[in-house]
Amino acid sequence: LKTIFAHGMYGMSVITAITAQNTLGVTAIEAASSDIVAKQIDSVFTDIRPDSVKIGMAVNENIVCTMAEKLIFHNAKNIIIDPVLVSTSGKPLLQNTATAAFKERLLPLARLITPNIPEAELLSGIHIENNKDMEKAAEKLYLAYNTSVLIKGGHAKGSASDLLYCGANFYWFTAEKIQSTNTHGTGCTLSSAIACNIADGMSMYESVDKAKEYITRAIAAGLDLGKGNGPLCHNV
Questions:
Q1: Strand 79-81 to 112-113 pairing
Q2: Annotated catalytic, 152?
Q3: Between vectors from CA 131 to CA 125 and to CA 136, what angle results, nearest 5°?
Q4: How far apart are CA 172 and CA 21, in angstroms?
Q5: Catalytic residue among 65, 188, 196, 233
Q6: Is 183 a catalytic residue?
Q7: Does the pTM exceed 0.85?
């Protein structure tokens, strides 16, 4: 929501879980019922219809299936999925029993998915050690889910290059890795920024390019809060 506000737009939330977390990590997760998730989605789409949809934590199979059914029912457009599978501190954020439904029901609805390298490995089954491996994984995911793929390179060594594949060409977005421990929420921030840019009518390439510039500024601003992995500075 901070990212959306910083882009001059109005964000509406559908809460899938309550988490107990801070910069030191996630200590507890309590899933919302699929019924209240469904009613929240209905409330959003029947009033202030969104121009794009960003999906993060999906929690369990019931919620995954509910989201898929409601997004289809409401004919949602410009769905950006950040496949949040495990927290930075190692806490599972999607139950193992939900993985199949997540792949079969939700990912094919996306216009773009934005996995980091570990998530791309898990979803594609390809071990990623270099840029060529990233390209192979992106192509496999594109073919499997018929959606554009942005593999985030933040877990790579030496650089922070991201790879966008839309079915024709590989586009690399290169930036020097900023040495900072204050990177809590980078994936959520990036996917939210892309969703904003797409809602604003930008092409996929331009949306990713502008979002990459934004998140680089947000990290470089050097906001230093908390005892662990601190948050970004969103108002940059």
A1: parallel
A2: yes
A3: 40
A4: 33
A5: 188
A6: yes
A7: yes
